[in-house]
């Protein structure tokens, strides 16, 4: 389906939903219109919980606070100032502005570099408790536990409030749907799935989380503002933990990560709760709670995926499944004139000086000094625990080392986080293939290009330009024929190749590879070896390779650095290292055989490590 057709289809569905909203008051009784007006607004807030939790992976209990910001702004302005159109807009501005301010502070606290997802959830858990206490202690200003009531509002009929709330929900849902299906929206799933890989692809994930959090806070505040206008009463419970948790429950029931699921979850549960509360005032919460437990146990993904799965399965039985899904992305090679890699500064491509790394009292790296130039392929070898991976980490993340300095392309990495090191020209491939498992090969590569090609917030790109080095890896391994294949279906070797292409898509000048051939077949190893030689010799990259396979090291390296107990014991040519008595002792001392030619492992064996 073309982009224009896909977007037209979304708009047609949105128009149908608006038509249904318009028809609502004509087919529903007054009670239902009244209750559903509230439910429509709650559904908009549940949608923001889904964006944060279902898509971005942030479980939040605090969206109620932003809803209350909008509601209380309307209530406070109308109560303490005269009601007028200008004051009403002032209240809207204060509500949204207040919500944005609170979200910025909470976002900064919850998503700073290094904060865990649990930490974020705990902060959003505390937020409603603090907000409710503040409202309770506000005296006559906030109305304390009674809240504010009887204030003036726009003179709209109940039907008009229903239409306004419904149109707001349809508008927000449509925009959110277009966004999550766009190239920029895909980043949310990438962050949820593998935040570490995102950072090492140069993405500032903390910033992305804060931006989405701010947008969700603003949506919730507008919903709260409309709610106060229609209900003409606000109470501390609107900011409370119970409402915040209800939003999470509706999202889980409907199906998180589906957008429409939480919307329908909120609409149905809130409407039915109102009915049950009237009919069974003492047991309705027990009934809702029991239903929730039953649904979650039977359908952990929520109800909407089940509703969609049934027809899909039936259609799947009727229609033969295509063996290879059609790809919608066309690959092409980036013109070298359009390359956006960092301009090299003074000195060698990589300069490591006096680097020390300690974990508490354990010194893992001690006084590491070396330089590597562009076009060099340097292998880093040494027994297990020598500190090889730790050194790679120190080069790719300025916060890792205890002391010493590291310059990449002539620029001091200082204490910069991984994404900033990527901007200086570092590309890191991990020991275990580190890709986005649920995304396709093409989507993984698109995310790797986000630093250079700004993604659209409403469209999906149909073509993808990659640097020649990345295209070379794709063509050599045949990955260019599997662009529509989800990464989790690839073989181990193909995943390694995909990760390497993703890293090369960054246009790095210093390439860090941690055992790129681990677990590969001999043919795959030879392929990777040829690619690495090409990258260093023809593309002029500085390649630093951690490797245990001596034959592989001997075939491709221009230089070998031997690390032992956190120190460099030798830095020289392959021949020098192989002939070194010291190196033999290092390996003998580690309980392994030496690395001379006589005792070197056969091609199928790995170098002792
Ligand atoms: N987070 C950590 N906390 C404490 N010690 C650590 C940590 N990470 C690594 N180490 C220790 O640092 C030392 C070096 O580990 P590192 O993984 O860098 O070695 P390596 O040379 O890459 O080994 P291998 O070849 O087995 O991958 C080891 O003794 C390891 O136990």
TrEMBL record:
GO MF terms, alphabetically ordered: ATP binding; ATP hydrolysis activity; branched-chain amino acid transmembrane transporter activity
Record family assignment: Belongs to the ABC transporter superfamily.
Domain ABC transporter: 350-590
Annotated source species: Ancylobacter rudongensis
Membrane topology designation: Multi-pass membrane protein
Top-level lineage group: Bacteria
Record localization: Cell membrane
Protein name as annotated: Amino acid/amide ABC transporter membrane protein 2, HAAT family (TC 3.A.1.4.-)/amino acid/amide ABC transporter ATP-binding protein 1, HAAT family (TC 3.A.1.4.-)
Entries under InterPro entries matching the protein: AAA+_ATPase, ABC_AA/LPS_Transport, ABC_transp_permease, ABC_transporter-like_ATP-bd, ABC_transporter-like_CS, LivM-like, P-loop_NTPase
A GO cellular-component term linked to this record: plasma membrane
Keyword set, alphabetical order: ATP-binding, Cell membrane, Membrane, Nucleotide-binding, Transmembrane, Transmembrane helix, Transport
First-listed, main subcellular location of the protein, grouped into a coarse class: membrane
Record-annotated membrane-spanning stretches: 39-58, 65-83, 89-111, 118-136, 160-180, 210-235, 247-269, 281-299
PANTHER family cross-referenced by the UniProt entry: ABC TRANSPORTER ATP-BINDING PROTEIN, CONSERVED COMPONENT OF ABC TRANSPORTER FOR NATURAL AMINO ACIDS-RELATED
């Amino acid at each position: 389906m073309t982009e224009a057709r896909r977007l037209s289809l979304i708009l047609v569905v949105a128009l149908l939903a608006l038509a249904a909203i318009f028809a609502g008051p004509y087919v529903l009784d007054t009670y239902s219109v009244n209750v559903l007006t509230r439910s429509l607004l709650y559904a908009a807030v549940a949608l923001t919980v889904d964006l944060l939790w279902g898509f971005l992976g942030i479980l939040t209990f605090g969206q109620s606070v932003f809803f209350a910001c909008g509601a209380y702004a309307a209530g406070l302005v109308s109560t303490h100032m005269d009601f007028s159109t200008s004051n009403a807009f002032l209240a809207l501005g204060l509500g949204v502005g207040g919500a944005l301010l609170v979200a910025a502070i909470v976002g900064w606290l919850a998503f700073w570099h290094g904060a865990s997802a649990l930490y974020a959830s705990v902060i959003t858990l505390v937020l409603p408790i603090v907000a409710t206490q503040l409202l309770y202690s506000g005296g006559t200003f906030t109305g304390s536990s009674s809240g504010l009531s009887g204030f003036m509002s726009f003179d709209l009929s109940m039907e008009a409030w229903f239409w306004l709330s419904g149109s707001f929900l349809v508008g927000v849902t449509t925009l959110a749907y277009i966004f999550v299906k766009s190239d920029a929206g895909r980043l949310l799933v990438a962050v949820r799935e593998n935040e570490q890989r995102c950072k090492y692809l140069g993405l500032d994930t903390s910033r992305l989380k804060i931006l989405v959090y701010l947008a969700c806070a603003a949506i919730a505040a507008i919903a709260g503002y409309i709610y106060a206008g229609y209900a003409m009463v606000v109470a501390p419970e609107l900011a409370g933990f119970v409402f915040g948790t209800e939003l999470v429950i509706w999202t889980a029931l409907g199906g998180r990560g589906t957008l429409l699921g939480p919307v329908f979850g909120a609409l149905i549960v809130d409407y039915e709760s109102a009915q049950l509360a009237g009919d069974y005032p003492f047991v309705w919460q027990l009934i809702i709670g029991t239903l929730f437990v039953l649904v979650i146990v039977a359908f952990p993904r929520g109800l909407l995926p089940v509703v969609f799965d049934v027809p899909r399965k039936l259609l799947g039985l009727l229609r033969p499944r295509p063996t290879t899904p059609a790809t919608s992305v066309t690959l092409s090679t980036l013109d070298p004139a359009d390359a956006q890699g960092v301009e090299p500064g003074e000195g060698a491509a990589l300069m490591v000086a006096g680097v020390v790394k300690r974990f508490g009292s354990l010194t893992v790296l001690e006084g590491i000094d070396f330089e590597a130039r562009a076009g060099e392929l340097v292998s880093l070898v040494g027994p297990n625990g020598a500190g090889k991976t730790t050194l790679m980490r120190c080069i790719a993340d300025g916060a890792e080392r205890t002391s010493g300095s590291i310059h990449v392309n002539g620029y001091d990495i200082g204490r910069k986080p991984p994404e900033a090191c990527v901007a200086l020209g570092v590309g890191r491939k991990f020991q275990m293939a580190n890709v986005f498992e649920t995304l396709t090969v093409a989507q993984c590569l698109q995310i790797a290009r986000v630093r250079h090609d700004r993604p659209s917030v409403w469209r999906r790109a149909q073509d993808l330009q990659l640097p020649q080095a990345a295209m070379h890896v794709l063509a050599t391994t045949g990955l260019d024929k599997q662009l529509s294949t989800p990464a989790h279906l690839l073989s181990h070797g193909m995943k390694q190749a995909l990760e390497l292409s993703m890293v090369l898509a960054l246009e790095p000048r210093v390439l860090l590879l941690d055992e790129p051939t681990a677990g590969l077949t001999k043919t795959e190893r030879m392929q990777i070896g040829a690619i690495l030689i090409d990258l260093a010799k023809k593309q002029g990259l500085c390649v630093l390779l951690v490797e245990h396979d001596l034959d592989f090291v001997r075939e491709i390296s221009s230089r070998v650095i031997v690390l032992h107990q956190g120190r460099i014991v030798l830095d020289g040519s392959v021949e020098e290292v192989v002939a070194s008595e010291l190196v033999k002792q290092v390996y003998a001392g580690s309980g392994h055989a030496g690395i001379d030619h006589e005792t070197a492992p056969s091609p199928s064996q790995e170098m002792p490590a």
